[in-house]
Amino acid sequence: MGVGKSTVGRLLAEHLGVGYRDTDEDIVAAEGRTIAEIFVDEGEPAFRAMEKAAVRDALAAHEGVVALGGGAVMDPDTRALLAGQRVVYLSMDVEEAVRRTGLNVARPLLAVNPRKQWRELMEARRHLYEEVASVMVATDGRSPDEVTHVVLDALELKQG
């Protein structure tokens, strides 16, 4: 959350001359409501089912850059779909998350004691991010352009 996946994803797609797709945006468009509203109206399990389908569809139909929601890797089927793909794990520490998002915006999983919940989410997910990642890039203190160039270098995809 707040790591810059959408911004960096768009920049990567632009640098590579390919399309960009964000599975969170796909869900919002399909449902006609925000992710926070889906969480409130239907709960996390319903959202996770939508997310799993959105990731599956995006990976099957899109050949460019795909940005996944932070919880997508919790699903073993999604992790299996990511096997063999070039996957970038953008990381940051909690202080950077606070600086970027304030941890007080509409983040359904961080509604109470956001710093503690952010740390707990990361502890639960970090090993899964690392499991599926081809490349890990720390975003702390870096601009989106800097992160994009580090990712391109790490993936050896520099253009001309």
Give a verbal description of the structure.
It is globular and about 40 Å long. The strands form 2 sheets. The protein has a two-stranded parallel sheet. Strands 3-4 form a two-stranded parallel sheet. The N and C termini lie far apart (32 Å). With 160 residues, the protein is mainly alpha-helical. The longest helix is centred in the last third of the chain and has 19 residues, at 114-132. The chain is built from 8 helices and 4 strands, in the order αβαααβαβααβα.
What are the SSEs and their pairings?
Elements: H1 5-16, E1 20-22, H2 23-31, H3 35-42, H4 44-61, E2 65-67, H5 76-82, E3 88-91, H6 94-101, H7 114-132, E4 135-138, H8 144-154
Parallel strand pairs: 1-2, 3-4
Helix pairs in contact: 1-8, 2-4, 3-4, 4-5
Question: How is this structure best summarized?
Answer:
Helices cover 57% and strands 9% of the residues.
